[in-house]
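Support request, please re-run this one:
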Amino acid sequence: MRLQYLQMPQSEFCTDEAMYFKRNGKTEFLPDDHKIVMYHNAAVSFDTYFNSFSADKWFRYTQINSVRLRLYLKGMFQVQLLQKTLLPHHKIHTKLITKMTVGSHQGNDVYTFDFENNHSGMLCFELKCVGEKGEFCGGYYESSIDQHNIRPVKIALDICTYKREEFVKRNIKNINAYAETEQGSLLKDKFEIFISDNAATLPLNEFAPYPNVHLFRNKNTGGAGGFTRGMIEAAKLKQQLGLTHLLLMDDDILFNPDSLYRTFVIFSLVKDEYQNAFLGGAMLRLDTRYIQTESGANWNKGNLISYKQGLDMRRTTACLFNEKEEDTEYNAWWYCAFPINIANDNNLPLPIFIRGDDVEYGLRNTRQLILMNGICVWHEPFENKYSSSMYYYIFRNRLIDNSVRDLQYSRKEFVRDLRSQVLREILYFRYKNAELLMNGTDDFFAGIDHFKTLDGEKLNQEIISNGYTFRELKELGVAYDQKSYQNALDIQDKNKIAKLCRRALLNGLLLPSKKYPSGTLPAVPTYKARPINFYRVRKVLNYDSFSGKGFITEKSLKKTFALTFRLFRLSFRSRLIYRKITNEYKNRSGELTNLSFWKQYLDL
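Re-run finished. Output below.
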């Protein structure tokens, strides 16, 4: 069975060669022909993110007991099979498994190489051209598998979308086209695609050429409602279509169907003890496609730990470190797969609209999470997606998730976190965000019966209208000051005495404000602002460098004192009801996660 194909850079996904191979000497990469031309003594190594073989995980989670490498070569080559492991201090230990010279001066030939009994570390290979000229034309890792031991697998791709038509259409086209190629032929007729269109903007006949696409107009109940609708619809056709697994995917990702191929093979070969495991795809940055944002995560009561964040996946040391398994609790739903039977009529997600649905469902159901180099998506980094509405959802849903999962998030911890976040937004003059944080807390304190009656779509519209809206700078009547923006990013804030003085002076709240030339305002980043950026400032431009838009906030003593008083009252109120409400969510959460509730909630 072909476990994993060797990948080449593709303009549509990633063109950074070091993610696929590393050259030394005179070589040419011909992307249209998917091959590398090598001249005498040139070498190419494949100890990379997409083309190494994660032996530890393949042998741990699947039934394979051997692995071979099959290469298509033209010319004379020296082939080295290698095993690499990571030592302390980022040192790499390389073991030479075998070295041999193969090839001919005529046509393409196929060669097979056995990694023998090496079942751990990173397995990879290196080619060296020992003739005048040679060509590497692809290949794959394979293993001999008893056909009786291969599990039947058919995957239901569950996509929730809201006005992301181009992303969705492109991904569906790519996946179906890939299944028609020789490389993707194993996937042919082995997946169905369920799309919940929360915006009702995709024509119902949009995917008529693809009989495996099922499109549903869905009530706008956020990602939680969209993904749950996909689960419900897939469950209806589970027996008829032979569906075995769900794969939840964001609508705004860039996705190479090779990840789907690897996912399919792993589930086909998974050992009995891991048949209920979840499989996750890492998130890489869409703007810098070799930087990883997350590979598995730990909820940590809301103080999220994104594992392997910031790794440069062009580096072999990063690839080796990325394979180290950690105590992951869940994988986000930009790419998360699991057996379809887990999403039964009494085990559906919580209806919390966005931000936290994947967390709670993962905490509830993930017993083992499989993560592997090469299975990934590219996604817009979170700092490029600033939104006031998230202040409501993130904090409210944090309280819900911690309560439902009984994570012992104490009232003292709650008050500390609420105060910290509200006071920070007050210091930034972002009073609407402070209000949204406390609105979310109030809605949580209203209890589960109130929560059950919320109209998610209407509530979301209210939240958006109560937050800040990005606008063109011309509309705001202000010029962008690059110097002040860069200074806000670069300024060092390490002087402890100065920090204490600013804190004693309430960050300059009661001091005279600095003056700026007419028509200009100091520009501060929306995502990585710090209190020092607002010291003795009256009005600021909150600038989003990604969109080139912004919004203006202005110091107000009246709003500062009003919000601070509201925060004090909310903290005091929590003494009376916090434990009662958290217990209520813990004991009654099942009322929100069953099919009967969801049918009513989605108007089905």
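Residues 151-384 form a domain with the Spore Coat Polysaccharide Biosynthesis Protein SpsA; Chain A fold (CATH 3.90.550.60). The CA atoms of residues 164 and 251 lie 6 Å apart.
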